[in-house]
Amino acid sequence: MLGLPEQFTSEFLVRLEQLRIRTRREYAGQGKGSHLSPRRGSSLEFADYRHYAPGDDFRYIDWNLYGRSDKLYIKLFKEEEDLLTYIFIDASASMGLPRTDRKFEAAVSLALAVAYVALSSGDRVMVRVLAGNSKAAAPAFVTGRHRIIELARQLAAVKPGGQLDLAPALARELAMLKRAGKVFVISDFQMMFNSIAQGMGLFVASNMDATAVQILGGGELEAQALEGDVEVIDSETGERLRVSMGRRAREQYRTTLMRLAREIRAMCLQRGLRYTLYTTERDFQEFFIRAVTELGLVH
Amino acid sequence: MMSQFGFLYPGALVFFALVPLLLIAYLVRERPRSVIVSSVLGYRALRGLRAERPWGRPRLDWLFLIELVILSLVVLAMAQPYLIHQHNPVAVVLDNSAAMQAGVPEGARLDAAKAALAGAIPNGNDVAIALYVTAPQPHQIADALSPSRARSAIAKVRAVDAAQSPLAVARMLRDIMSGHRFTQCLFATASPVNPPVPPTVHVFKAGDPIPNYAIGSFAVGGAQFGSGALKAEVTVANFSAQPQTLEVTISAEGKALTRAQARLNPQEITDIEFPTLAPSSSYRADLKPADAFNLDNVAWATPPGGARINILFVSPTPADAAGLQNLPQLNVHTISPENYSPQTAKADLLIFEYGIPRELPAANALLVMPPGGDDVFGLRVVPGITTQITDWRSPDPLTDGVNFRLLALRQPESFAVHPWMQSVVNSNLGSLIMDGRHQGHRYVVLGFNPFPYLGTRNLPMSVLTLNILGYLSGFGSEDKGYRTGEPWIVPAGVGEIITPSGKTINVKPGTPFTDDAEQGIYQLIGPGSQRRLRAVNLADLNQSNLENPASIKLDIPPGDGERRDFSQRQSLTPYLLAAILTLAACEALFTYRRRRIYAQGLT
Fold first, then answer.
1. Does A41 contact B at CB distance below 8 Å?
2. Residue B325 resides in a domain
3. Do B37 and A229 touch (CB under 8 A)?
4. CB contact under 8 A, A253 and B30
5. A247 at the B interface (CB within 8 A)?
6. pLDDT, tens digit (0-9, with 9 covering 90-100), for A224-240
């Protein structure tokens, strides 16, 4: 539908429009919006008092307080601004394997769904692709829900490939961002744990509210295609390992992957970040609606 | 050094067939399927299951190659390889004694010997040469030299001024050939070598016999015992086939002092005396005519140092020694016979009057009218009332200048023929005076008593007494100074010695001085730059006899002179086992480290 993934039915889009992004702190935006900003403004949310100064609008004088203290105070209110939403998609070679799991397509769908939520709430969205075959475009925000089509076309052109070292890649991206906001990192996180921890730690240091979304393939988790003596080749590093795959080995392999996922989740929660795991054999729409809270969304 | 390689059990090499079999088995076995996966992170924990275990299924990576190498080394070790080292150790002995300086031009003998040795040295990488010289003492100067370095070392050898001892050279050659340390011995010398010569010893004769005139010894001493005048005595020899008149000139401080001639028959040796010499610190004697060996045409001497002579007079009548106290350079100590002890009697000369010691004295001794029938000397006294001097030995230092016709003897007694003492003065009954040498010391026996010493009041007896004391105290003996190459003890107080060539050597008193292979005057520097001179000469007429030099008799046991196989087999198995263990340890360590790294990568 309009170049969007097949999961984006009309009903699903309606449900997405009912969601909005929730942040754990207030971020300054670039224009009027629906999210409270640390700036002083004209919303209904009281912020503070200050002494009256000649020229201030009489409408904001707190007369009750004047009656009690015989002094003139001006009431200050918070500003409501749009939210800057950053979505980082891992397009390294590992996201393309196993092909049957369509991990990268799932990541794109997830990114578009989040972007649609943000755009429909009047927020600004910037989608950045890490690694992959696409040339790095200059960072730019999009606004307006109709821009989802444009984002879908751009992401559809990306093919996974190359090697990604998460921490240095995110450090480069963060150096180009001017303001803090909400961050979504969508990846399979099939990399050394230290790199993941360092990369996610950058968002904490940058005062951003980040959500890590790990995508694993259903076939990838089960290692179904492997049986007997197999030489497995790392899609990114080219490292070769010879293994004897069997039932016990597959169990051990799955246990290892799930242990790695648990360690990433624990690391995120420990740092005040959000984490969720999506395995591609699950229904996408059902997962997205169920994982609203974990994703940092709210009805 | 050449080496040959071999196997003790070459049959074990058939197991090398296992190596290609192993390789083929690896190559033909089912190859694992290669699958590209998103990441190998989850697979790392599976590595140790089967394929990655040490000594598990071989892989064509470097671990598999190491295992192949280990297998190959094991097969090699089973075959027990070895190396055979071929040795050809050669001993080269060069005669560098003083006689090798002879020849025209000077040193032609030594040059001929060097050329002969250089040409005879075998070439080859397996040749290791040990170089020996024969003078001043036979010794080794280099070891394990290559042929080229050996030739270079031989070219640098210089002849010394010292003689060689044929016995010492023969002993060294025997030591060289004993123990089978050398395949052959090359010996170049001017001395003849008596047959039989073992087949492994090759003698190169350097130089033909040549006529030579030589100074044997040159000594300067007191003209007479107890007087301050100096006289010199030069021994000269004519080692030629023709009679020859030899002229000796003695000079001091560059000025000729005196000159004398003697005509000598072929092979004759004689002494030329110079009765009066002007005092000087050192003297030089030159022999004419010149010949092909210049070293022994010159000799050096220094006057006696004026040391006093200690005499122990053992007598029941000590008053008899009174007259001797007046003689210059004498210290006379008198004791009674019962106080004499061989251990405590330290003197240059012992005089026993009317007595005889219980054991042979360890010093020159004069026995005056000893009782006969003793066990030490075995003297037999012939009693007699009418004893008359009948004849005496002349020339002889004991009878020199004695007027026997005026010699009045009081109650003389004679001695029968003695086994090792010779009669000097005979009487009608036997010997009145006998002298002899035993165990390196001189002994004189008198059948009359010359004491007390009366000086000019009894001139004939006084002359005889001084002759006897002079003979026993060393003058007129054959001990005519120091010889090149013979070590001497550094005197007390001497800190350094300057050799004739001007080289200064620091020395310690009481230690042997061995750097005396150079003929000339040595300066002994004592405290306060006090300087003493010491003459060192070749003084070896055997060495100077270039026509009939002393021969060397080889005494090499027959077994030591045979040719032997000098190859040496060295087993390489221990090295192979060490390499196997090292490689196995490396593989185990690498495997352990790799598994550890993988395990760390998961967290």
1. no
2. no
3. no
4. no
5. no
6. 777 777 888 898 888 88
Q: Which residue of B has its CA nearest to A92?
A: B38
**B34/A contact by beta carbon, under 8 A:** yes
Yes or no, beta carbons of B37 and A243 under 8 Å apart: no
Instruction: Look at residue B100 and tell me if it is in a domain.
Output: yes
Element (H, E) at A287: helix A284-290
Question: What is the pLDDT, as a whole number, of residue B15?
Answer: 87
Tell me if A243 and B36 make a contact (CB, 8 A cut-off): no
Rounded CA gap, B298 and B519, in Å?
9
Q: What domain count does chain B have?
A: 5
Tell me the pLDDT tens digit for each residue of B347-377.
778 999 999 998 888 778 999 999 988 888 8
Residues of B in Cβ contact (< 8 Å) with A245: 46
Distance CA B88, CA B180 (A): 11
Residue B477 lies in a domain: no
Tell me the per-residue pLDDT of B121-145, one tens digit each, with 9 for 90 and over: 998 888 889 999 998 989 999 988 9
Token output for B137: 């003492």
Nearest CA distance, A105 vs chain B (angstrom): 15
- Tell me which chain A residues have a C-beta less than 8 angstroms from the C-beta of B44: 241, 256
Among B304, B134, B299, CA closest to B206: B134
pLDDT of residue B13: 87
Distances (CA, A) of B212 to A74, B240, B241, B266, B472: 142, 6, 10, 10, 34
Contact B550, B191 (CB under 8 A): yes
Same domain, B249 and B201: no
Q: Which residue has the tokens 């016990």?
A: A248
Q: Among the three residues B420, B453, B472, which one is the final residue of a domain in this structure?
A: B472
Judge whether A267 is closer than 8 Å to chain B, CB to CB. Answer: no
| Model confidence pLDDT, tens digit, residues A79-99 | 777 788 999 999 999 999 888
Q: Tell me, what's the pLDDT at B529?
A: 79
Backbone angles phi, psi at A74, to 5 degrees: -100, 130
Mutation site, A95, A232, A236, interface B, largest B CB count within 10 A: A232
Domains of chain A: 10-27+86-298 (3.40.50.410), 37-81 (no CATH)
All residues of chain A having their beta carbon less than 8 Å from the beta carbon of residue B602 are 193, 256, 259-260
Taking CA A243 as the corner, what is the angle to CA A239 and CA A244, rounded to the nearest 5 degrees?
Answer: 165
Tell me the average pLDDT of chain B: 84
Does residue B49 have a pLDDT over 50? no
Q: What is the pTM of this model?
A: 0.46
Residues of B (40-69) whose Cβ lies below 8 Å from A: 40-47, 49-52, 59
pLDDT score recorded for residue B435: 92
Nearest CB to A226; choose among B35, B38, B41 = B35
Tens of pLDDT along A178-187? 888 899 999 9
pLDDT higher at B375 or B27: B375
Nearest-CB residue to B39 (from A234, A243, A259)? A234
Domain residue limits at B556: 88-209+549-561
Beta strand pairing call for B389-392 and B414-415: unpaired
The complex scores an ipTM of 0.82
Does B202 touch chain A if contact means CB atoms closer than 8 Å? no
Nearest CA in chain B to A238: B36
Q: Convert the pLDDT of each residue in B538-579 to its tens digit.
A: 988 888 998 888 889 888 777 665 666 667 778 899 999 999
Map B495-525 to HEC letters: CEEECCCCCEEECCCCCEECCCCCCEEEEEE
* C-beta separation of A88 from A184 below 8 A: yes
Q: Looking at the DSSP assignment, which residues form a beta bridge with residue B335?
A: B314
Question: Given B32, B44, B603, which is nearest A230 (Cβ)?
Answer: B32
Radius of gyration of chain B, Cα coordinates, nearest whole angstrom: 40
